[in-house]
Amino acid sequence: MKNICSILVVTVLFLSLVQPGFPAPISGAKLNFPKPLEEYHDEQIPGIFAKLVHRIQSDPFNLLGTLIFVAAITHTFLASKLMHIAHRLEHQFHDLEEAEKTSPTNEQVFRQRDRLQFRAQVFHFLGEVEAVFGIWLIPLFVAILLMKGWPTLVGYAASANAAEPVFVVVVMAIASSRPVLYFTESCLARVATVGGSTVAAWWLAILTIGPLVGSFITEPAAMTICALLLRQKLYDLRPSAELRYATLALLFVNVSVGGTLTHFAAPPVVMVATRWNWDLGFMCSRFGWKAVGGILIATGIYYYRFRKELKQLHPREIGLAPKERRIPTRIIVTHLLFIAWTVLVSHYPILVVLGFLFFLAFVEATRRHQVVTSLRGPLLVGFFLLALVIHGSCQQWWIEPVLGSLSEWPLMLGATLLTALNDNAAITYLASLVPGFSDSLKYAVVAGAVAGGGLTVIANAPNPAGQSILISRFGDEGVSPLKLFLWALIPSAIMGAIFMSLR
Questions:
Q1: Burial class (CB in 10 A: 0-12, 13-18, 19+), 253
Q2: pTM (2 decimals)?
Q3: What's the rounded Cα separation, in Å, for the pair 27 and 5?
Q4: Residue 22: is its pLDDT beyond 60?
Q5: In Å, how far from its chain's centre is CA 73?
Q6: What tens digit of pLDDT does each residue of 329-368 get?
Q7: CA-CA distances (angstroms) from residue 337 to 217, 332, 343, 344, 359?
Q8: Radius of gyration (Cα) for the chain, nearest Å?
Q9: What is the signed CA dihedral for 86, 88, 92, 98, rounded to 10 degrees?
Q10: How many structural domains comprise the chain?
Q11: 359 and 310 co-located in one domain
């Protein structure tokens, strides 16, 4: 039944992309929303603040859309508190259920139990980080409807580029399949063997080699695989809260920069590679080797900090899992080819979904070597990214003048900070629209975007995937955005310093 539901969900998604028999919606561009930057005619206005005031006066929706966006960001920092309230209400609900088994209850108790259940579900939904920006699409759409009208709302929603969200959903689902995990774990096991296959050796292998592999299997795939392995090799051993947050921060930062060896793996690079003619050779020579050095230095510093605790953790504390049945090479190769196909056609959602349908059929045909394909996590992450794309398009009016007014170092730092508040792919995309960007400024904005990709969950597209896999190991309160930010500051600063000092 779960496989059937998964296929139905993907089929509906595919049909929604094709939209046979329906007239094409009016595009957002034709409706002049959001207002094109060249139509503000504010080139002669001095000062960023005066320019932003002029743009608000030209279109008051700019301010409202940004306020809604800021509210969504604030919501992400409160998500762990809301999740904690949800768990508390769930415990109260279960206590009432247990009380009903031992003593008679009346209608008032039934109503109280139903209210607790409903409130717990509401707070649980509000506490899902992946759902936050989707929730705040409701006030955004209401604002567009009231201020711009129904045609503008429909045209704007239909003009959203769903290529990246669809790609992330599919590559996450394929990368989390048993054959791919088996293959990747086998490769990392060979590296861990050098260190005696201890917890520390696995930790180092996953956080150094894993993110760099993302340059070839894409960052979303690397994030999914590394998070799943870390959950098994480290988090299930119940390490300290400090080690849990340090590891998550390192994972996010290392994956963000680890995809820069190629021009097709990291979302912020993909957004500008074609526009700026950045190819494989350029990425390796300008970013790749520096990313390798930064990952080794940052991971080495954190290893030195937690070396004693890592040495004290032993897999036998939770019991060794039985040895898995060997998966035939032909099945592993087929799964890797499905990932390669998804990467090749990543800009064409229809081809991505078609390939995924064939993948699901292959999984069903080889189910003896598979596990049930769960789409809950990938779909939540896709929902998060699509909502972020829709919100981000309304932020061009202030991001463009802010980035366009900065020199190299301020631009790098500004891109890093903006990345913490927005997806780094959106930052680089908007930077590609700024006229007159020199090669050094292009380099600086991408360096800042990838260096800051681990500061928050929303900073890099694959981050929600990693959090959704590991969040259950952080207790009822979930992942604290502030603690994640603080632990990610050091590796982010190291990455930024290496990129800029060796340019």
A1: buried
A2: 0.74
A3: 32
A4: no
A5: 14
A6: 999 999 999 988 988 888 889 999 999 999 999 999 998 8
A7: 10, 9, 10, 10, 10
A8: 24
A9: 100
A10: 2
A11: yes
